[in-house]
């Protein structure tokens, strides 16, 4: 189903003043891709952009029942250091996802890297929020380019 799938990648820190605009752009892109037959949306479950993307897919699924939120998570303990609100939101996303895959049971030095590669390897499209040319988001976008994904920058 790679041809009918999209992944998300973006920074954990989003400018608070831009969150609403980013959410609107996400919703528009999800709707546009769903209109092209994209039904599977892969998300990595991190704070920031990943959380915003997952919530956007869950909202879109109410209008577009054929789409699915599929989580590829680095490890089962990903939310260990989240605050109470973040943990509640994470559990809401987890319990409403259509599928959950864990790269590792426990945190390892490579589980985030493998999660990012797995998101890309499942997808034909990548919606990204990229503002820095270093770090995991940049690596993931560069990997997606090398794998031939269509990149959608927000």
UniProtKB/TrEMBL annotation:
InterPro entries: YspA. Pfam families: YpsA (PF06908). It comes from the Bacteria. Gene3D superfamilies: 3.40.50.450. PANTHER family: UPF0398 PROTEIN SPR0331, UPF0398 PROTEIN YPSA. This is DUF1273 family protein.
């Amino acid at each position: 189903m790679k041809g009918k799938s999209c992944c998300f990648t973006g920074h954990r820190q989003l400018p608070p003043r831009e969150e609403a605009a980013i959410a609107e752009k996400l919703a528009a892109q999800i709707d546009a891709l769903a209109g092209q037959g994209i039904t599977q949306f892969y998300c990595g479950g991190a704070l920031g952009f990943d959380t915003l993307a997952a919530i956007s897919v869950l909202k879109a699924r109410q209008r577009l029942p054929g789409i699915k939120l599929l989580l590829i998570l680095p490890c089962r303990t990903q939310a260990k250091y989240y605050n109470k609100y973040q943990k509640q939101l994470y559990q809401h996303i987890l319990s409403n996802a259509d599928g959950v895959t864990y790269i590792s049971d426990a945190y390892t030095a490579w589980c985030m890297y493998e999660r990012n590669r797995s998101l890309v390897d499942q997808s034909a499209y990548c919606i990204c929020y990229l503002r820095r040319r270093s770090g995991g988001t940049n690596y993931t976008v560069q990997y997606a380019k090398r794998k031939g994904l269509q990149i959608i920058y927000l």
